[in-house]
Write a structure and sequence with these properties.
Blueprint lengths: L8 E4 L4 H12 L4 E5 L2 H13 L4 E5 L5 H15 L4 E4 L17 H29 L2 E6 L12 H20 L5 E8 L5 H14 L3 H6 L10 H11 L11 E4 L7
Parallel strand pairs: 1-2, 1-4, 2-3, 4-5, 5-6, 6-7
Helix pairs in contact: 1-2, 1-8, 3-4, 4-5
Amino acid sequence: MTGSARRVALVTGAGRGIGRATALALAAVGIPVVAAARSVDELDAVVSEIPAAGGEAAALACDLTDRAQSTTLVERAASVFGPIDILVNNAGIGSNTDPRPLAEFRDPFWDETLELNLTAPYLLSKAALKHMRAQRWGRIVTVASINGRVPSPHSGAYVASKHGVIGLMRTLALEVATQGITVNCVCPGPVRTRGNDARVAYDARRLGREIEEYEQGLTPIGGRLEPEDIAPMVVYLAGDGARMITGQAYNVDGGVNMA
């Protein structure tokens, strides 16, 4: 993004995994990053790496399962480096915390999953639009999942939330298409994160498979993706070069879903 106007990014769930990799990747191309997450220690570790590499970053502790915090995060972030130009909705909860068949699903876990995976991106995007419309430039990139396209057993809330967020972002893309704002999703396949480690172990046990063998067969390429495999797509969609791309949901999944 060298030579373009100074852009400011807000990345949620930036303490680890895909969010961490994305925050580092955006900073590496010269974008000041406000990194938000629940874990202060993890956030501080990410933010400490960025200035050492010549970038700018700030940490904001935020729990997006609390609707009041989702509502105020964008303005808190804007007070650091200025108006938010790039919003990366990455924070989310997987099915690994409490995987169950739908008939046995816990209603509180359903509510928590939908709040974090669907309602928080809705509220954050709504708040960020005020900044983006004022300057007639904006990028909203939401990390969805291949389970926003295809189901997975014992993951009812997760699958529903990811299908929902893709539909939400496509609707928003249509509504703001003439305003210099693009809205897209990235749909990762199985990525080596703390949460996915637990889900892989659960599914291997459920299927009576050895974890290593099961993991190797998760993608046609072989094995799982790394968080650093997802970040380049986010960075591209956040840039000037992607100005004619909107309403899309790109699979970055090792070939799992070739649709």
